[in-house]
Amino acid sequence: MNRRMFTGAAAGLAGGAVLLKTQVAPNVWAKDRRPPQSRVAILTATAYSDKLDQIVYEGLRHFDLSLRGKTILLKPNLVEYIPGVEVNTNPWLIGAAADAFLRLGAGKVIVGEGPGHQRDTQLVIVESGLERQLKDRRIVFVDLNRDDLVRVKTRSAYTNLDELWLPHSVVSADIVVSMPKVKTHHWAGVTLSMKNMFGIVPGAVYGWPKNVLHWQGIERSILDVCATLRPNFVIADGIIAMEGNGPLHGSGRVLNRIVLSDDPVAADFTCARLMGLLPEKIYHLEQGARFLGNGAVEAIQLLGESMPERIAPFSVLPPFKHLLCPAT
Amino acid sequence: MDRACPGGGWNAGNSRVFGVALEPHIDATAIALLALQGTAAQNDGLLSRSRDQLLVRTRRCPGASSLAWALLALHAWRQYSRLAVEIAERGAQLERLLHSPDRIVDNSTLAVSALALDAVTADRNPFEVRR
Asked: Which terminus has fewer CB within 10 Å in chain A: N or C?
């Protein structure tokens, strides 16, 4: 039991039966959903352009997914637009993913996001350049901050939230694809496919910037959100990533990679390793690897390229120096 | 007032994180300015900087909701005469956006846009504090 769990247990004992579930390690409340083996494809991509269409298409073919007639919801990371800074999942990659899923037989692809900072979702869509991709490729966008709602019981107990109100478009999709921007994060260490799922939680219920989740603890909320609605697939934008003071004010870092996976935990462990960080020291990843997906190298099958031999670690803020790989 | 961004205006949360000043948002700034009508004497510098932020950030604003909130705030502060031209320009801007249906994505955007245009054309701002 680590310090966090011990603190939670102590609070539970003091609070009586109402807080009973905090007396035990939270992950025992979650069903173990780790597959025997997870698959990850690391793909080289050096620019945001229409060449991504073929790269993503070929990458997806490695996974031999059953897509015929299915509804795919792409969940990119759109925070807010800052001119000249690669904050958001690049629209070219979102467009390429939509195109690839349709080419592989998907019945319908929609893009959904509920920005955590900006209430004016339309403003972010237009300023980020996503509107152009949506129009050109005739893709429907759903504002997850204001979609119809479905009440869903949480499937782990890292927070005190017994249920979450989630967007109907997400809950009813056959396949939810988390499409994070690979970035450091000044509270959670990294923001990858799991942290990206914060954006499915509707601002209309939980406020901006998803206040309720912040009060419950960001890392704990990430785990409960992902346990409750585990993304089925990941396409991570690491072509130009962000290091330092992410997720908004860091520096661009050219990584020239996109990462595909059928397991969000495996995707995030792999991305963290590509960033030169130690994923097992990132709380929500370490906990996620206990029940939600695979983090161990031996449980991750690499379908695309191998890990680079030498990795220059991403710069991190001082509180996260312990995440840096000692020697890479 | 202690949540204001260093250069004026407000956003959805903190004004600084790890020593870095965060940027204001149009809608949050506009709503704060509407709420702070009548407090100019005490906080004139901050409110003036915040109005300037609104003007700069809405010059080519493609978001109808943000633009409508900004218009309501600028209209409520129209006693500052230099705002008159800017208000008219933003009103025309908003009207142009309303002709593009895919920019009006929800009822709250439609409603606040209607209120903003009504404020400008009929000089009737529901958020204005009259004395």
From this structure: N
